[in-house]
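Q: Can someone sanity-check these two? First one:
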Amino acid sequence: MAAKKSKAKAVTSAQFQELIVKHLRSTYGTDEKKANDQAWWKATCSAVNEMIFERLTETQKSNAVNDSRAVHYLSLEFLMGRLTINNLHNVKVFDQAREALKALGKDINEICDEEPDMALGNGGLGRLAACFIDSLATLNYPAVGYGIHYEHGLFRQDIQGGRQIERPDSWREYGNPWEICRPESVQEIPLYGYVETVFGEDGQLRKVWHAGRKIKGVPWDIPVVGYEAQTVNVLRLWESKAADFFDWDVFNAGGYIDSQAEKSQAEAVSKVLYPNDETEAGKELRLIQQYFFCACSLKDIIRRYKRNHSDFSNFSKQAVIQLNDTHPTVAIPELMRILVDEEGLNWDDAWKVCNESFAYTNHTLLPEALEKWGVHLFEKVLPRHIEVIYEINRRFLEDVVEKKWPGNDEMKRRLSIIEEGESRMVRMAYLAVVGSFKTNGVAAMHSELVKEDLFPEFYELWPERFVNVTNGVTPRRWLLACNEQLAKMYDKTVGTDWPLHLDQLKGAAKLADNTKFQKEFMAIKREKKVELADEIEKLCGIKVSPDAMFNILIKRLHEYKRQHLALLHILALYRRLLENPDYDMGPQVFIFGSKAAPGYKLAKDIIYAINKVADKVNNDERIKGKLKVVFMPNYRVTLAEKLFPAGDVSLQISTAGFEASGTGNMKFALNGALTIGTMDGANVEIREEVGDENIFIFGKNCDEVKALKAEGYNPWDYYYANPELKAVLDWLDTDFFTPGKPGELSSIKNSMLDGGDPYLCLADYESFTNQYVNVDAAYRDQAKWAKMAIINSASVGKFNSDRSIEDYVERIWKLEKVLPKQ
């Protein structure tokens, strides 16, 4: 471990300009007069890559020489977004690059807009993984991120006639200057086939898996640049290819399409993020995806370990493998298979290595999100792994559960990794808990619910295994890069070290009452709102006033996140304005950004309803522009970077007890938005940091939600008890918003009444709308609002992903920093 941090060599704008021109000519074969913006962007990337790749090599050398313990972060999602501006900031050459491009007649923002989003994730899970690998590099911890090199990331969302249409997202259609292919580390992965029991040379029984098919895993490395670029780690993404991908004999015999069948089947594995699993073929592809990237990653980890070690006695001391949710859980039986079948360890020794190497992060309390795979599917695709899982389960039930609860067959049934029933299932979350030395939740409240509600018996067995690590976000992207004006204001106020030590922003809270500081802060907010208003007009054709209160709800579309509760509130406001055009409220804009899973009909219906209500509200002159509704298409990281700085109000309105943490709530608060939210996820901790008077809490808390459900929740009671609520729900049955098509929006009403309103929208409706009156009143007192916004922004230093990583290191990973030589 190096004692002192050295500073990177400074590069002047003139030097950076020379690098850009050099790569424009020698790397991309064009010149300043002919080059289009894409060539300029790639040349800029190549210029900064000269610094990044050099530091990547130094980082890898230092880790190899030190034989460092490293974390291997396995995640099916990495929602990286764009890297150019982030990397320029982290290498500390953003200003030089801007000046260099300006001297060449180019605007850095226009050039960086050429970069497609690296949308290799769905939402919070993938964005959190991106923040974590950023922080690991910034804090100089040895780490490798492992995932899948999807050809198509999360779909591109078009809105046609108000409805979501999914289109392919070809993020690397014209190449990606950040990634490097590593053919020297290709892995071969078996699938299908059968298992044979044989006697080994030592007379012991051995299991041999005869694969029916093999596919290749080709690694692509994306450098992960820490702030100030002392450490550059790697995100390694696996692309699937056929082992022998072209059959010449079939081709020459005229089977032009059949000759590539194996190639197409193999490449389907890394073709798309989350293939639709409503069909049996879709389920099979998803399981293969998960096994493919886990198996490739484990082979890679073992290959690296064997450079310095001849046996596995130190494996768990050198490698910790973090399972980001249940998707990578199949890595547990895969490591056991490798250790027992290929490396010759006995079961007990192999299990000790395995159990001491894995740690599991739980991200959800939703039963449908806790993956289960049919035993029949495992038997078909991974026949050896189901045998390993059976043996893990047998030993767990006989050696652990029986010892704790002797003779209690009901407890064995409840805790079994294999769920019995009409169709036997493998409970992947149970396998993750049993096979890991630590299980963590992602917010204080969530971690308690993991222990109390989700895994209470496992917690009783192993209380020392359960810990909390509250999520965080990287301030480098979510303030420094996306809100340059506010970042510079903080530089002047608290110094320039806050991107590494976010707690330093607390120094600005002392100025929350300062009129001059308030005006400067709110001027920046208005500037970001003007920019967003321009973007809304460009994308949606809707004009909104930057002087209106911007209420923003951006996250994955799911019933528990309750976008439809916000819609009911909008309908109520619209109804009040129609009944009384002078209704006392300040102008408000409600802005949504969200994607619905392709097979999730109600979520897609909610998007349609928001758009149809927007069409009516935005064009109704009777309400004098007091209310506007916007649904921004194709929500992604790049759009989020415009939305978070512009938000006045952050809607975090999930049903209490359902959101594990949330990270959008942190990004909004950091950029000076006030939260209206339930006591759910990280909202609870945000409230503790900013103070009760600077957040708007509504709705039933977790205990009240449980109690209401236990006593028998009846949404009809709320429907009949509140005339306004009844009126807006009944409105959805008419053709008021869908002329000539009555009932097109009825599915939303039906879900809340006939469907039982599982997420208690109607129970929380009155509290939500009443609290919004307080939000509106507070916003109209701009001096008060400015003070509250400043306190929010300056008080959320806790929610830095650097702090999260330090908690992981202390409570789970036990890593040491390694500083490469400069």
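And here is the second, same format, sequence then tokens:
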Amino acid sequence: MRYGKFDDEQREYVIDRPDTPLPWINYLGTDEYFGIVSNTAGGYSFYRDAKLRRLTRYRYNNAPFDIGGRYLYLRDDASGDFWSPSWQPTRSTLDEYECRHGLSYTRIASARSGIRAETLYFVPLGETLEVWRTKVTNERDTAAELSLFSSVEFCLWDAQDDATNFQRNFNTGQVEVVDGVIYHKTEYRERRDHFAYFACSEPLAGFDTQRETFLGAYRGWDQPAAVERGAAFDSVANGWQPMGSHHVKLSLAPGESREVIFVLGYAENPRAEKFDPPGSQTVNKRYVRPVIERWLRPETVAEGFAKLGAYWERLLGNLQVTTPDADTDRMVNIWNAYQCMVTFNMSRSASFYESGIGRGMGFRDSNQDLLGFVHIIPERARERILDIAGTQKETGGAYHQYQPLTKRGNNDIGEGFNDDPLWLVLGVSAYLKETGDLSILDAPVPFDNAPGSEVPLYEHLRRSVQYTQDRLGPHGLPLIGRADWNDCLNLNCFSETPGEPFQTTENVSGGSAESVFIAGQFVLAAKELAAIAELRALDGEAAEYRAAAEKMTGVILEHGWDGAWFRRAYDFHGNPIGSGENDEGQIFVEPQGMCVLGGVGLDDGLAAQALRSVADRLATPHGIVLQQPAYTSYRIELGEISSYPPGYKENAGIFCHTNPWIMIAEAMVGNGDGAFDYYKRINPSAREEISELHRCEPYVYAQMIAGKDAATHGEAKNSWLTGTAAWNFVAITQWILGIRPELAGLRVDPVLPGSWEGFRATRAYRGATYEITVRKPAGSSGRVAYLIVDGERVDGTVVPPAAAGKVVQVEAVVEG
């Protein structure tokens, strides 16, 4: 069952009924100011940091699920009938409804009783504000007297404090209305630093800034008293719950349309004037009023929206493909690339499943997000790498997460996720392969953002690898610490006496539990760092890293191979995890992917055997589950993983993030049909027909899909912010389609399904444009024999970098 359709030409997903199985959302903003918007106008906005600079309030885990947002109300002043053009929050019956989620914008249109309304929401490039452009049309044969009400509920900046510290917050709200602009002045424990504003392009019939006055006692957003009576109360908030609402009167002749623009924004006062006396609005008006007035003009809004479209046209133009599969084209050319941009901006911090409070930017997460984003805006990828590296400890360890506003590590999370440091090597390697910018390796980067501790970025990479080498366990495998990639596999938990509370080792990074996954990751990272060392003419150092990779490979084969697949780990007591010796959790997907990515078992057939075990034991029609059999009871020595019911999340759920590792591994062993089959199983576009089961958005990847042990096998959760986006983009574009940036140039080495006869692609790379054609006989599973580059045969599959601005014609010849 579908709830909408793809409009590929407009690069939009069109939702044609508001009652989607879950809120289907989109993101506004591209740089510093961001917002989440659902298909019924739910969501919230923030500046840079969803925890510390939250502009508007949103209530998670509510009933209905999606309450709080950018709501408008229309009222027929003749009849008293009122409704929400976005359906929520009044949920009044609409004669027509359509939501179009586009690239950093959303358009919601509806009609009721002969009145049509269409609202465009977007954040202009380079601005710290959002625009709501609403067009109201009278389609009746008679004149219409209407009232239009806007509404937002302000958050008191620190979203966690806002949701908990009521004894203080009910006394701090400050709002001022000046010349029709609503200024939210409430500060969090400091004065005159930043503020929000909410403005309207039309003369106001009234306004409200006190929530309980606007709504009325014991009422909700579905029945505001001001809207019901058709007149605002002109309330000014002093404490309690500040909000913003404009009341505009519209008199429309038959067929007449009126456009009303609302602007919600964030501003900071100049630092020299930060401590101006409270109550003075001279600074606000002096610096902000020109911005407000400019964006309340229709021509400015039209120009800003056109620039946003041109921006995305340029970004997506860096890679476009035409293949025999529509789902592949749609995801590669539009939605997967777009999701990679969003995950790059948000990490895992702010979605409808992440509150924006508990997590900032992830060290592991953000490095992986680079993989799918670096080709789009490499300059921002460079900036992010330096930000991430600046949070690293001198030991080479890393804060698992850090706040984007302060760039300080979250101490409550701390370090000890022992896979974290190695991801920095892989992120930097991806950047170097894409850009050739070796200067980043000499960029000075501090440890823990401490002034005076700066060393070249290359030294951070050295310490990332050394961190693993300094933390090896009894079998010579890397210590897992708190956890590796699987945050819920906490193997340094133990109980001295059965039934007693669990304990942890005092220093989990020094606990005895070991990770085969990190071992495979180390092999991959050490090889990448060896190649980087060679670029710096450090041949001796490169040899040391290759020797370390070879040594770890030997340890994996001796202690990590279980006979038909790679083991997962060893627990605190030295017992194998992910082994045929176990009664449950005998095989895990992560090491089957990561060990093969590191090249372990490729030459002796073990990689192919491990992948056959994945196909036999872990693959389902909805994707590859994390492990089998699922854990059916809580096991203290495993930690959180066994606390989930079978088939959900880390306990044998389809954790989509790991699926592309298997796709890549299948491509590495030459199995194009297997790699593409796995790709299609979790491709959101390919799952659109089963939206009533999948439930999440059919245009972006979800973090997990319920596994075969679950009661709701095939149901997705945690959409949008997931490493699944970047890794699937890498799997399909770099390994299945085979257009892969490397240090020496652009490799064209596809591993295609047998039924394909080829494909075409346009790829920007280091300032040049490569127009690529791949042709192969139908039914063939062969590989590229040679390339024809600008009419000349080139042996091998690597095209050397061309001069900036050049258009290079590449034909890949596949022989059966």
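A (reply): Looked at the second one. Residues 40 and 52 are 26 Å apart (CA to CA). The mean pLDDT is 93.
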